[in-house]
Amino acid sequence: MSKLNTFQRVRDLSDWRAVAFGATLLERSLPNYQLFCELNDFGEPEQYRNCLNTVWDWLANPKARVNLQVQLDRVEEAVPDAADFVGFGVYPAIDVCMSMTALLMLMMGDDPQGAVVISKLSQGSVEAFIEATSEEQLDADAIKAHPLMQWEIDFQSELLDRIAQCDRQKDSIQALKAMAREEGMSNIGLEME
């Protein structure tokens, strides 16, 4: 499935399904932020884990109350500044931060296209990683054909298929979270703990 089709399908998501899509992609990319924090002695990576757990709880328990503004404030305090760090790792970490912000803004009703933002950031992280680790200059077709990008596009497509079929029951939500972790790697191929 092409990128355009994926993004159009994400645009068509609404309410909790859009949040579930974003949370699943974040579950898959969160190790990028956690590893960056550990390697650079930056922030408290569990802060993002706790925030994402809160989102999963909200998805599984529709009556749960979440102070989204407090969550957003905590997330925004823990964004690294690329100018302060050497190395590629800061960029996927920033993408996770921007994705978490987009997810919370989506839940607050301030960004109805938050799921699209997260989808694009996830694919953008993969593209940047491919470019950063390639020994040669790659054109758009070569990047799109790269196994890591194919995996990303396939994952998002399969996720959209699953979300279309699931209901907002606790076991369905847990299955989405498990889907993000089942291959044991983040979207850029980092091992999950």
UniProtKB/TrEMBL annotation:
Organism: Bowmanella dokdonensis
Protein's name according to its UniProt entry: YjaG family protein
Pfam families per the UniProt record, alphabetical: DUF416
